[in-house]
Write a structure and sequence with these properties.
Blueprint: E1 5-7, H1 17-21, H2 24-36, H3 50-53, H4 57-70, E2 73-77, H5 84-93, H6 98-101, E3 108-112, H7 118-128, E4 133-139, H8 145-168, E5 171-175, H9 181-189, E6 192-195, H10 209-217, H11 222-238, H12 246-259, E7 264-269, H13 275-289, E8 297-302, H14 311-316, E9 321-328, H15 355-372, E10 377-382, H16 387-408, H17 418-429
Parallel strand pairs: 2-3, 2-4, 4-5, 5-6, 7-8, 7-9, 9-10
Antiparallel strand pairs: 1-10
Bound molecules: 5-phosphoarabinonic acid.
Length: about 450
């Protein structure tokens, strides 16, 4: 298998093929308005043909190679859409213990600006104190508080260590072409910078310099990532028919289940490499659909560990959920259970079997159990941990969630609700312009 695969056999007892096909007419016209840029939020469709239109790869790779030569520790600063895609790709593709293995050509990778914890930042500053450091600060608006605070600390640490001009050569900025405080700062200080296209929203920006630069610094092949995404761009542009377009099939299934009261989608992985892919998907789905009193709540679980905790709820709790298993078809490496002369732990019945074999049985056993527990479930399999496969997966979800949002009747490309907490926080912080009573 070299392509994504969606198995929905365990959905059919709950949603018939006929029920899904009933959506085909609407899907056809939504597909057309997506392709023609006629739907709501069409100012933010830059992601749609990004994989086939990206031209900045060479300069991103060149910058990444320079950073790899220059530093032992690389810090990517950002939050939400300016953070999760890169983290997803690096966790998906690299050795789990990358930072312990890092060599000068493969810097340690750290993330900052995704929380407001003094402990986290102080610990990070301590860890990088004696290392050669480069940073990439990423913010489309250029005004987001969390990354701005982290950048202030880290910029100061670099300037104390290397002087202002030394620090200038170690800071790369990814932001809007002309707007925001970060753009002004980048231009004033002469930092190397990359542009986030204005027509690509944060959660759809992983295949722009937002994701690509940190991903390339981590040694992941960004050309292969883009090639995988391009493959899915071509496939899903070509046909809107759910028999042949599994992104739309997935969207149709979600829509039918939602209409039957299944308001929570539990995305379950059986591989820890998917941890941040799930987090990235949660942002994509949650911000795209959760508005106007609508939306499937995107939850994520990591099996098998969560089978020993949340598994109880999934098996027997409130039947308002459906489950999507996200699997990796082939592990990078194979380990077989060793045979012991003394079978004290009683595991010799598994001797010679690979851990993937055991994991696969855990998956099948879980899918059957949850089906019995009245949880509709489907399985999306990504072929392997290659960047090409991940590119397919990123694009698959982008396309599917965009359509799913439209089917739900919401604009999948805005996020008005994200602003609410900020206003309150700024008022409480007495930010100029936000003082109590001034709004
Ligand atoms: O999807 C979104 O728009 C948000 O989650 C943003 O990605 C997040 O708030 C970061 O915004 P910015 O890149 O402007 O700092």
């Amino acid at each position: 298998m070299d392509s994504l695969d969606l198995n929905f056999d365990n959905i059919l007892p709950f949603v018939s093929e006929q029920d899904m096909q009933a959506l085909q007419g609407r899907i056809d016209s939504l597909h057309e308005s997506l392709e023609k840029g006629l739907g709501e939020g069409s100012d933010y469709l830059g992601w749609l043909h990004l994989p086939s239109q990206t031209t900045a790869l060479a300069s991103i790779q060149k910058c990444a190679d320079r950073i790899k030569d220059q530093c032992e520790a690389f810090i990517s600063i950002g939050i939400g859409g300016s953070y999760l895609g890169a983290r997803a790709a690096i966790t998906f593709s690299r050795n789990f213990f990358h930072n312990q293995l890092a060599t000068p050509k493969f810097p340690q990778i750290y993330f900052a600006g995704q929380n407001i914890s003094s402990d986290y930042l102080a610990d990070l500053l301590e860890v990088i104190a004696d290392k050669e450091v480069c940073i990439n600060v990423i913010s489309k608006s250029g005004t987001t508080t969390e990354p701005a605070i982290a950048f202030r600390f880290l910029k100061q640490a670099l300037e104390n260590k290397y002087g202002r001009s030394g620090a200038q050569k170690r800071i790369t900025v990814t932001t809007d072409q002309s707007r925001g405080a970060l753009r002004e700062l980048a231009d004033a200080e002469g930092y190397q910078s990359f542009v986030i296209p204005g027509n690509v929203g944060g959660r759809y920006s992983v295949l722009t310099p937002v994701g690509l630069l940190p991903i390339a610094v981590a040694g992941v092949d960004i050309e292969a990532l883009l090639a995988g995404a391009r493959n899915w761009e071509e496939r899903s542009s070509k046909t809107s028919k759910i028999e042949n377009n599994i992104a739309y099939r997935y969207a149709a299934i979600r829509n039918r289940l939602y209409s039957k009261g299944k308001v929570i989608e539990v995305m379950a992985s059986f591989h820890p490499a998917l941890k941040y892919v799930l987090a990235w998907w949660q942002q994509l789905a949650g911000e795209s659909e959760g508005k106007n009193g609508q939306g499937i709540f995107p939850a994520s679980v990591e099996y098998t560990t969560d089978l020993h905790s949340l598994g109880q709820w999934v098996q027997e709790g409130n039947r308002i959920i459906f489950e999507t298993f996200l699997l990796i078809g082939k592990s990078d490496r194979s380990l077989a259970v060793p045979r012991l002369d003394q079978d004290a732990d009683g595991l010799n019945y598994l001797a010679g079997k690979s851990l993937d074999f055991v994991n696969d049985k855990a998956y099948h056993g879980t899918a059957q159990a949850h089906l019995k527990g009245e949880v509709p479930n489907m399985t999306l399999t990504v072929p392997d941990r290659s960047p090409h496969s991940l590119g397919q997966l990123f694009y698959f979800f982008e396309r599917a969630i965009a359509l799913s949002g439209y089917l739900m009747g919401v604009n999948p490309f805005d996020q008005p609700g994200v602003e609410f907490y900020k206003k309150n926080m700024f008022e409480l912080l007495n930010k100029p312009g936000y003082e109590k009573g001034s709004l």
